[in-house]
Design a protein that fits this description.
By secondary structure, the chain is of the alpha/beta class. It is built from 4 helices and 7 strands. The chain has a single domain, classed as 3-Layer(aba) Sandwich (Rossmann fold), CATH 3.40.50. Bound molecules: adenosine-5'-triphosphate and magnesium ion. The site of magnesium ion (MG) has 5 residues, from α3.
């Protein structure tokens, strides 16, 4: 592939991703094939190493596309001792991070699942704004597509999709920090 076609391929991918997510401010995009849960574990582990606190990860994708699996591996990699579950009724849960790394400020992992959320007001009641984007908190939100409007511009978007074997993750972020995990 020559340089010109490589460029246009890249632009096409970004255009495609933008139209898929229809969210402004995201410039960088990466597509990662996750043929099995071990690759999801690797992705979560790589991301956990880079997160410093204050990040917001917005997870979208259909039922069973691997969002909670990703959060479970992320929590483990961050040193969360409790089990992270796919919450049936609990929409927001906060876990203590026990990481020995001294290169970050993250003390809490806030896990939100919006599947059963009635409206955005419910999130205020649950206290999401006490956590979202706070420097010592990493926030991960499943079914983020339901509440697009609340996200800060620096949000890292992960869209999970079914692949023929396993899953595909499309990652979008407004800066390289959000995307250089692999
Ligand atoms: N990369 C992968 N390859 C193959 N299977 C996977 C992968 N990631 C997750 N799975 C499997 O998919 C199933 C559903 O995963 P998970 O519960 O994480 O999905 P979800 O997106 O959180 O679903 P929901 O929207 O219902 O909460 C699980 O059995 C899990 O092991
Ligand atoms: Mg889930």
């Amino acid at each position: 592939m020559n340089n010109e076609s490589r460029m246009s391929q890249k632009h096409l991918e970004i255009f495609y991703a933008n139209s898929l997510f229809s969210i402004p401010n995201s410039k960088i995009m990466k597509k990662i094939y996750l043929p099995n849960i071990n690759t999801t574990k690797t992705l979560a582990g790589q991301m956990a190493k880079k997160l410093k606190g204050g990040e917001v990860l917005a997870l979208s994708g259909p039922l069973g596309s691997g969002k909670t699996t990703f959060v479970q591996f992320l929590a483990k990699a961050l040193g969360v001792k409790q089990a992270v579950r796919s919450p049936s009724f609990i929409v927001l849960q906060v876990f203590k991070i026990n990481s020995k790394r001294i290169t970050h400020n993250a003390k809490l992992l806030c896990h939100v699942d919006c599947y059963r959320l009635k409206d955005t007001k419910e999130l205020n009641t649950l206290g999401l704004h006490d956590y979202l984007g706070k420097p010592n908190v990493i926030t991960v939100i499943e079914w983020a597509e339901k509440i697009k409007k609340i996200f800060p511009p620096k949000t890292i978007w992960l869209k999970f999709k079914y692949a023929k074997h396993g899953r595909m993750a499309l990652i979008r972020a407004s800066n390289r920090h959000g995307i250089d995990f692999f």
